[in-house]
Amino acid sequence: MSAPQHYLTMDLLRFTTAGSVDDGKSTLIGRLLYDSKAIFDDTLENIRRTTAQRGEENLNLSLLTDGLRAEREQGITIDVAYRYFATPRRKFIIADTPGHVQYTRNMVTGASTANLAVILVDARKGVIEQTCRHSFIASLLGIPHVIVAVNKMDLVDWSEERFNTIVRAYAEFASRLDIPDIKFIPLSALHGDNVVDKSTRMPWYEGGTLLYTLETVYIGSDQNHVDARFPVQTVIRPHTNEHHDFRGFAGRIAGGVFKPGDEIVSLPSGQPARIKSIHGPGGDLTEAFAPMSVVMTLDREIDSSRGDLFAKRHNQPLIVRDVEAMLCWLAEAPLQPRGRYLLRHTSRETQCMIRDVRYKVDINTLHQCTDDRTIGLNEIARVQLRTADPVMIDRYKQNRTTGSFILVDPFTHATVAAGMIITPAMSPDETSG
Q1: Among 361, 356, 230, 216, which residue's Cα sits nearest to residue 293?
Q2: Of 2, 50, 97, 155, which shows the fewest CB atoms inside 10 Å?
Q3: Same domain flag for 182 and 74
Q4: Smallest Cα–Cα separation from 148: which of 135, 165, 139, 130?
């Protein structure tokens, strides 16, 4: 099934940036905004003034993303910073994530909704541990497009040989990952080479600039338009004279296409109905698709509420209580084997227990560690969960919304983990291979 035609004209790209400390992420984003004329005059004047106060020679464009005073004083970015800008071709949302090892959880947060990841590599250092870490997380989170931005080419004399060495090293590591689209761009964020404007100092590079690549990368097929999924967030009953009998189900479509007249089932109960109408912010719709937020009415009364999910009658998700997933641990306190947590999956919340830790992943080597199953902050593991109530799931590779969840501490209500569903849980015999 092809995507809806008007969906293909969607002009919003969400991308994340990641790299090691001092690779130049903030400077790169600042250069991107500056050279694409996306900075207000008063903001630019403030950056000029701050740069002069510091006694720095070049305009410090990293100040555009290092918005907190504490960040500026330390010279590091310590949280996920979101920035918005637009060009005539496309709108962008950038998530700038820190480079420190201990901030892996921030990259998971920033990259969870991204279509694309820009991974910076210092041309002098090449592919290092953090490069592998960030690439593995991008692969784990199902980001389909990666741009490897080889920065600071000015410090290696614009060397084609050095660039090619880094490309080979990265390609060798990435061959073990699941990233379908990888592009390499040599650039200098400080001087602007190949960021927005084509560099005259690297004539050997024949590819597009970073901005051109961001503007033209095709993301129309990134959404799942085949498997229709609609998690119900709330039931709307106005109880007004005008809408006395109105009963609508509100939520954000997580996949596929819905149209009035479609046969659906409400899960987990399995009650069937037909869609009577679909309402959007601008009025009635003839079709709706991910990631639109809509209100649906049905042709009959069914017992459905928040946490349920609508799907097509002949294309339903799995309804399970045992789940196998990759888990990125986000909390200071370690994972508790047999521990009980709240699992939030789409609009559904239920209690769960971690039944087993299959293995921990060494992010740098991608080896599976079965001898040490203690899972601490920023570590990633394959686990088996059992939920108190049924959950309607797809594999994460199939649908990033219905295939993901978070775990919440039931006492502090802090988010402790982000999970990507691999499959319904299997027995040890089935997973031994």
Answers
A1: 230
A2: 2
A3: yes
A4: 135
